[in-house]
Design brief:
Blueprint (H helix, E strand, L loop, with lengths): L9 E9 L1 H9 L5 E4 L5 E10 L1 H9 L3 E8 L6 H28 L3 H9 L13 H7 L4 H21 L5 H16 L3 H9 L6 H18 L2 H28 L6 H5 L2 H14 L3 E7 L11 E8 L4 H10 L5 E4 L1 H6 L8 H17 L3 E9 L4 E9 L1
Antiparallel strand pairs: 1-3, 1-4, 2-3, 4-5, 5-6, 6-9, 7-8, 8-9
Helix pairs in contact: 2-3, 3-8, 3-9, 3-10, 6-7, 6-9, 7-9, 10-12, 10-15
Length: about 400
């Protein structure tokens, strides 16, 4: 997972909203759920995390336990790397899940599976096939050697291609090799059951080709994870700076050069402390696509940034009713174009956005953005929507 695994534990104030599956699992293990009021004033149930391993969050996403993750802080600068790491964990988790779904869809179309279905109508392998984890583990018992050999057959041509690619640096080659293994490691037991069932079949090669093609496609898609994490951080810092400038004007009335003032470390620390006292926060949320039953929505990710203030409920109603004349709805690129001249990071934001947009188009990831701005409250709601 690249940078997201460099640090074993992350320290961020997470509100983790659970799916029905997640809530049932926690309750059945006698874990009490908390009731949260989120940035959009909706109340949800979930758990709170402050120090956690990236792997634990990823595992919960892979099990369809998480529907949304939210962070709220007055300043993001000091947690920059950790927020980016969390963002990458979330994106990679969705990619692993989507990869696994597409592998299953590709396998059941292979001739060896179709032939099996024609000759074994009572044991069909199709989109309606359901087996428990216990059943699958029993069927895969004593097949470790076959699985290891099959993994090698699938991966060897991909590894050979990576190692012979002169465009990659040695470090990039190493990352790509590890990534190819990780995608296979995250595959479900159901997919491994199908693969091992037909591994010695004449049609096995058709399965391996289908898996390699998808593996190559998803390794390319994974490149957007870095761009998304940088873009999210840029937007969080932009909102943070807006709040700091606004508070600086309150605290240091009469000072002409507010811009220079807020970049004095001591002054900035005082302003941040005041924002924390007033509970002026920037909210960042990741809403994950529907669970396994939400056909067609599983690969979606909606990232939203809110600059929250005391009038947020009123603003929320304004958004929902879409009646207020002080509401400006625009794309993210228009948002950057309309920022005041000299606003810190404006050019950088446009730069990141263009790279993210281009990277998504290259690998067939759908991306769009929308910004709602409210001039009276200086509140901004930014939505980034992805479909992997």
């Amino acid at each position: 997972m690249g940078a997201s695994e460099k640090k074993f534990m992350l320290n961020l104030p997470l509100k983790v909203i659970l799916t029905e599956n997640g809530a049932s699992n926690f309750l059945s293990n006698n874990k009490k759920l908390l009731r949260f009021r989120l940035a959009d004033n909706v109340e949800e149930y979930g758990i709170s995390l402050n120090t956690f391993s990236p792997q634990s969050v990823q595992q919960m996403i892979l099990l369809d336990y998480i529907s949304k993750i939210e962070i709220s802080m007055s300043e993001f600068v000091s947690s920059r790397q950790e927020v980016m790491d969390l963002s990458k964990v979330i994106v990679f988790s969705l990619l692993y899940k989507q990869f696994d779904r597409e592998i299953f869809n590709a396998l059941i179309l292979c001739e060896c599976v179709r032939k099996w279905n024609r000759t074994n109508p009572a044991q069909l392998i199709d989109e309606k096939t359901k087996m428990s984890e216990r059943q699958l583990r029993t069927k895969l018992l004593n097949k470790e050697g076959l699985i290891a050999n099959t993994r090698k057959i699938i991966l060897e041509p991909i590894w050979k291609s990576i190692l012979s690619n002169k465009d990659y640096s040695p470090e990039e080659k190493n990352i790509m090799l590890l990534m190819s293994e990780k995608f296979l490691n995250k595959m479900s037991l159901m997919n491994w059951y199908i693969i091992t069932l037909f591994a010695k079949n004449d049609g096995a090669n058709e399965m391996y080709i289908a898996i390699r093609n998808l593996l190559n496609a998803y390794m390319e898609k994974s490149k957007v994870a870095e761009y998304i994490s940088v873009m999210v951080m840029e937007l969080a810092l932009n909102n943070e700076n807006t709040n700091i400038r606004k508070e600086a004007r309150n605290m240091y009335q009469g000072v002409d050069d507010i811009g220079a003032l807020v970049f004095d470390p001591e002054v900035r620390a005082k302003i941040v402390k005041e924002l924390q006292r007033k509970h002026e926060l920037v909210f960042l949320s990741w809403k994950l696509g529907g669970g396994s039953s939400s056909i067609g929505k599983q690969g979606r990710l909606a990232i939203t940034l809110y600059n929250k203030d005391d009038e947020f409920q009123e603003v929320k109603e304004t958004i929902e009713n879409a009646k207020a004349s002080n509401t400006g709805k625009k794309t993210l690129i228009d948002f950057y174009r309309d920022l005041p001249d000299g606003e810190e990071g404006t050019d950088l934001g446009m730069y990141y956005l263009s790279y993210l947009d281009e990277a998504c188009k290259k690998v067939n990831v759908k991306f769009d953005s929308m910004v709602n701005q409210f001039s009276t409250s200086e509140l901004t709601v930014i939505n980034l929507n992805f479909n992997f």
